[in-house]
Write a structure and sequence with these properties.
Elements (H helix, E strand, L loop, with lengths): L1 E7 L5 H10 L3 E4 L6 H9 L7 E5 L10 H11 L4 E7 L2 H11 L11 H11 L1 H6 L2 E4 L5 H12 L9 E8 L10 E4 L20 H7 L4 H23 L3 E8 L5 H13 L6 E6 L4 H8 L1
Helix pairs in contact: 1-7, 4-5, 9-10
């Protein structure tokens, strides 16, 4: 039997993850009282029940009983009961924004501030995150991207380094992304903006890419960038980092940054041990301004 404890921060997507796991064939139970976890697991293994894959949702709603989970996991380990922990997380700013959008109150905040409740919850769930086998940060994930990550882990059985990388192109004139961990300035590359028949095209198109890469400077830069990331990423994983945003910026975020970000995304796609997505934050802004004008 495969037993997965699904836990994490309120608002990080635990309920959605449980529904997705149910679609994948898991028998899912949410908010099961912790004193019932051991007898439930034993029952699930017995015939004629004999569920092969079970997911148990556990979170801060367990209240004062939450620390008892340590004893349950200790007993399971001693009795060689196989289990894994999936921890759903998100940045504090993202969680606050989600609570404001849904107009829900945080379970620990009461009538106080949401960020205070988040801080208390993060402290109480710290022991679970520390013991987690899989950590997924949903700060930048769409629902379908979360499903893809869960399928990698629980359906395709791929190795998973608990790291999700976002490659983000942007325009410096619209501001540096506040959540970027690494920022690379590619304004030294040839700029298609000054070529009339390329100005209103983007770095997703072959003609623009060829212009940016003319002369070989972009290729030299990208090779050095790849080498650096091959060194950095495994060390980030060892450090326990689970979310990495790589920003690539040019002036308007439409040509050079999109070209380089696209090439970087293709290169990193060869790795299956971490999650990956690409975003072009400012690619349409000049077009919108032109149409408005």
């Amino acid at each position: 039997m495969k037993l997965v404890i699904v836990t994490g921060m309120s608002g990080a997507g635990k309920t959605i993850a449980l529904k997705m796991l149910e679609d994948m064939g898991f028998y899912c139970v949410d908010n099961l009282p912790i004193p019932l976890m051991e007898p439930f697991a034993q029952l699930a293994m017995q015939k004629p029940v004999n569920h092969e894959r079970v997911a148990l949702g556990i979170d801060i709603r367990s209240g004062e009983n939450l620390p008892e989970l340590l004893h349950v996991m200790k007993d399971w380990k001693q009795n060689e009961m196989p289990y894994q922990i999936l921890f759903l997380d998100a940045g504090d700013e993202t969680l606050v924004k989600r609570y404001k959008e849904t107009r829900r109150s945080h379970p620990l905040a009461g009538r106080g501030r949401v960020d205070t409740g988040i801080g208390q919850e993060r402290e109480r769930l710290g022991f679970l995150k520390q013991k987690a086998d899989f950590i997924i940060d949903t700060s930048h994930l769409l629902t379908r991207e979360l499903r893809q990550e869960l399928e990698k882990i629980f359906t395709e059985d791929q190795s998973y380094g608990n790291l999700f990388i976002t490659v983000l192109s942007f325009g410096f004139k619209y501001g540096i992304p506040s959540d970027a961990d690494l920022v690379f300035d590619v304004r030294f590359l040839p700029n298609p903006y000054y070529v009339e028949n390329l100005r209103y095209h983007t770095g997703e198109e072959a003609e623009v890419q060829a212009y940016v890469r003319q002369g070989g400077t972009a290729d030299v830069f990208m090779k050095k960038l790849y080498d650096m990331l091959e060194f950095l990423i495994p060390n980030y994983v060892l450090e326990g980092k689970n979310q990495l945003v790589i920003g690539v910026g040019c002036t308007g975020g439409k040509h050079r940054s999109v070209t380089v970000a696209g090439a970087l995304y293709q290169y990193l796609s060869r790795h299956e041990e971490f999650g990956l997505k690409i975003e072009h934050r400012d690619i349409d802004k000049d077009r919108v301004r032109k149409e408005m004008g």
